[in-house]
Amino acid sequence: MIRFALIALLLLAGALPAQDKLTWESEKKPRRLSLLRTEKKKLLMVFNVPEDSRPYLHPILAPDGNGILTEYAPAHHKHQTGLFVGFLDVNKRDYFHNRDKDYFLQDMEPATITESDKAAATMLLKTNLLDKDGSTLLVETQDWTVEDKTTHYVLDLACSIEAKKDVTFGKHDYGGLFLRMPWRAK
User: Fold this and answer.
1) Does some domain include residue 81?
2) Do the bridges between strand 120-130 and strand 32-37 make them parallel or antiparallel, or are there none, so unpaired?
3) Which of 18, 37, 39, 80 has the fewest CB atoms in 10 Å of its CB?
4) Which residues form the domain of 134?
């Protein structure tokens, strides 16, 4: 089993009042989990867990509510979907640029979620990365903890990957955890 952890990705914005408890709202079609501040039902971010695609976070809203910090599938990079994990050249398969049913299959339950009395929430989700014959090559488990610090978020991701077959990873300049932020030439 390969294991890596990516800790404390901070997304900064303006000051807000005292911390509020976080809560999840779930939708079945499309499969997504929205994370909100409980008191005012203010949306913070959405975990999208499509049945036959890779999971991703979008939108991630600025903590003060003024702006969206992620971008979904811009015309010039359709494969970039907010904040996601994607690998290139795994047994000659590209899980970064391809995100459809020929590459991914989610577990039947979209996620295991936890709420607490603190301004923090956790979610665990599993994705099957498929080989060219449609069988599971890797099982990726993403264990997310989100803390709302009112002026910024702390996103903690522990990602483990279990090989179901012999696996070779190719070398690339990018891949793994990827964040697509809005960008305009102006």
Assistant:
1) yes
2) unpaired
3) 18
4) 2-179
Give 127-160 as a DSSP string. Answer: EEEEPTTSSEEEEEEEEEEEEE-SSEEEEEEEEE
Query: What total of structural domains would you count in the chain?
Result: 1
Q: What is residue 145's predicted lDDT score, i.e. its pLDDT? A: 94
Please answer whether residues 68 and 51 qualify as being in contact, where contact means their C-beta atoms are separated by less than 8 angstroms.
no
Q: What is the pLDDT of residue 143?
A: 94
Please answer whether residues 177 and 162 qualify as being in contact, where contact means their C-beta atoms are separated by less than 8 angstroms.
Answer: no
Tell me the residue ranges of DSSP E strands in the chain.
2-12, 22-27, 32-37, 42-48, 56-60, 83-86, 104-106, 112-115, 120-130, 136-148, 152-163, 176-179
pLDDT (0 to 100) of residue 117:
66
d(CA 19, CA 150): 6
Model pLDDT, residue 107:
80
- What's the confidence (pLDDT) of residue 10? 41
Residue closest to 164 by CA, chosen among 135, 143, 132? 135
Asked if the structure places residue 186 within a domain, the reply is no
Closest C-alpha among 47, 40, 27 to residue 121: 47
**Domain assignment of residue 184, yes or no:** no
Q: DSSP state, 88?
A: S
Contact by Cβ (8 Å): 153, 146: yes
Ranges of residues in the chain whose predicted pLDDT is under 70:
1-19, 110-111, 115-117
CB count within 10 Å of CB 67 equals: 13
